[in-house]
């Protein structure tokens, strides 16, 4: 229950909600669902690093392996639950980052900030920049506008550096489709290093995809806020060689 694998649907309700307290009183007509996966429950969450705390929201450096959101089998390895348990603050997810990607994420700490930030992401008012290392020598900057799952998706990339048969790219996305960067780059023949799903399924390297920059309007002051990830946390071609 503490790890988020117990769900209750109250009589007359249309959906299930997590329950965490063993003292929760069930009533006639309620439904209870328990999900058990030893591998999921046995995982130990990795700790994110606080970058900035504005009160109504905060910005974190999510490590690779930490989830952006939980599943019905548990949420103790999700960034919002980690923050709630570590800081005793209500936390809302307003956007997502692939589990094995790393870098900047913003979370909200009240419903008003959550609605405001979610709207900014949905209306594409948030600037998001990523850095990735791909297999192959990308010769020039480019744009990809291939649809994903029947929806428009636009990705822009520019070359930062070459080392051997690998390229460090800066990537901007206009849309936020699931696995957009990984799918688009693999689709043009330059899969992201460490991508087992769309690249080399036998690779043992970590996914080289990092969220490095976020800019959005503060829900409280409306001022534009910018956050840059420290270079020590960004993908490095030199580290790839060692």
Total of DSSP H or I helical runs spanning 4+ residues: 5
How many domains, in number, for the residues? 2
Please identify the top-level CATH class of the largest domain: Alpha Beta
CATH topology of the largest domain: Pseudouridine synthase
Q: How many β-strand runs? A: 13
Poorly predicted runs of 5 or more residues: none
CATH H-level superfamily of the largest domain = Pseudouridine synthase
Fraction of helical residues: 10-25%
Mean pLDDT across the residues is 95
Broad structural category: alpha+beta
Which CATH architecture of the largest domain would you pick?
A: 2-Layer Sandwich
Q: Strand-and-helix sequence, N→C?
A: EEEHEEHEEHEEEEHEEH
Radius of gyration (Å): 20 Å
Shape: globular
| Straight-line N-to-C gap | 43 Å
> How much β-strand is present in the residues?
25-35%
The biggest sheet amounts to: 10 strands, mixed
Can you lay out the helices and strands and say which pair or pack?
Elements: E1 6-9, E2 17-18, E3 31-34, H1 38-41, E4 49-53, E5 57-62, H2 79-87, E6 92-93, E7 102-108, H3 111-122, E8 127-135, E9 142-144, E10 155-163, E11 166-173, H4 180-187, E12 209-217, E13 224-228, H5 237-241
Parallel strand pairs: 7-12
Antiparallel strand pairs: 1-2, 1-3, 4-5, 5-7, 6-7, 8-11, 8-12, 9-10, 10-11, 12-13
Question: TL;DR?
Answer:
The protein has 242 residues and is of the alpha+beta class. The chain has five helices and 13 strands.
Report on the architecture of this protein.
- Strands 4, 5, 6, 7, 8, 9, 10, 11, 12 and 13 form a 10-stranded mixed sheet that branches. The chain has a 3-stranded antiparallel sheet with strand order 2-1-3, with no helix packed on it.
- The termini are far apart.
- Strand 12 (209-217) and strand 13 form a beta hairpin.
- The chain has 2 domains: 1-34, no CATH class; 45-241, Pseudouridine synthase (2-Layer Sandwich), CATH 3.30.2350.10.
- The chain is of the alpha+beta class.
- The protein is built from 5 helices and 13 strands.
């Amino acid at each position: 229950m503490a790890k988020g694998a117990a769900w209750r649907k109250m009589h007359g309700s249309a959906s299930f909600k997590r329950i965490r307290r063993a003292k929760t009183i069930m009533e006639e007509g309620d439904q209870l669902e328990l999900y058990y996966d030893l591998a999921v429950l046995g995982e130990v969450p990795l700790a994110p690093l606080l970058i900035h705390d504005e009160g109504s929201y905060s910005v974190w450096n999510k490590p690779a392996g930490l989830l952006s959101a939980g599943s019905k089998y548990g949420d103790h390895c999700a960034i919002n639950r980690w923050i709630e348990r570590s800081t005793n603050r209500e936390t809302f997810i307003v956007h997502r980052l692939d589990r094995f990607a790393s870098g900047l994420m913003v979370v909200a700490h009240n419903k008003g900030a959550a609605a405001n930030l979610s709207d900014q992401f949905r209306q594409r008012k948030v600037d998001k920049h990523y850095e990735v290392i791909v297999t192959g020598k990308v010769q020039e900057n480019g744009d990809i506008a291939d649809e994903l799952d029947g929806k428009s998706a636009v990705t822009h990339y520019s070359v930062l550096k070459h080392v051997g048969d690998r390229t460090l790219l800066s990537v901007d996305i206009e849309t936020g489709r699931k696995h957009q960067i990984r799918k688009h780059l693999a689709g043009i023949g330059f899969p992201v290093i460490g991508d087992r799903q769309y690249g080399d399924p036998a690779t043992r390297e970590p996914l080289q995809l990092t969220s490095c920059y976020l800019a959005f309007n503060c829900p409280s002051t409306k001022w534009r806020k910018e956050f840059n990830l420290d270079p020590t946390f960004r993908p490095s071609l030199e580290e790839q060689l060692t």
